[in-house]
Amino acid sequence: MEQLFSDGALTVPFGADFFSVAVGVITGAMFACDRKLDIVGTIVLGLMTAYGGGIIRDLLLQDHGVYFMEYPSVILICIGLAVFVFYFRGLFRHSGQLLFFADALSVALFALAGANKAFACGEGFVMVVILGALTSVGGGALRDISVGETPGVFQRSNFYAVAGFGGALVFAAMAFGGAPLVLAAVACVFAVVFLRYLSVYYDWKTADEADLTPKVSRGAHAAKDFCAEMFRRATLHRKRDSVARAPLFRKRKD
């Protein structure tokens, strides 16, 4: 257990990091294959999906090292994995449920890696949550932009970015609340996977049309009419009272 810590910060096991990167490569490569890209495009999109979110996080943190450049051997393995997917894509098309779980777990681990590194670098609560969420979906967003598509995380869909944000929020709340970082990490991963599966099971999707202007306008008009009616009744009541009390103030005529 002590190996999970370094200078008071949580050290994510290398195997978990490699797993999330590998799943990112596979999903990015399959994305490229579905769009009929060549082997170069498959490799580039695979690497972009796997490393994109972490690169954005590291560039924003500045002077804290870039994960992408720390393990060159892993990059070579990822390139080989992307080539394998390109030539044997059929093996992955029949593993929908397994890939879905692996992808959900990968998003969770990316969210954990981003939030944990931001926390270890001394960032505040808000930035820990933002960098955790950004790391979880940044690679996929860059991948979509590279092929001229609107990023999937910006479109109506089951919880993806929301799940990453939720996991990062759980980690930040527990870490800043003084909970053990290992417990915060487990809760983060569980929250992301749970939200991802829950949104698919109940078909919860982010809204793409949420203009509240008509509802607020109707409410404002109703409130205005109500206030006007109350004012009219109050004015009428005052007039009736003044008429009823008028004889009491008349002077007697001798």
UniProtKB/TrEMBL annotation:
Pfam families: Gly_transporter. Residues 16-88, 101-174 form the Glycine transporter domain. The chain crosses the membrane at residues 12-32, 39-56, 68-88, 100-119, 125-145, 157-175, 181-198. GO terms for cellular component: plasma membrane. Its main location: membrane. InterPro entries: Gly_transporter (IPR005115). Keywords: Cell membrane, Membrane, Transmembrane, Transmembrane helix. It is found in: Cell membrane. The keyword Transmembrane helix applies. It is a multi-pass membrane protein. The keyword Cell membrane applies. Belongs to the UPF0126 family. This is Trimeric intracellular cation channel family protein.
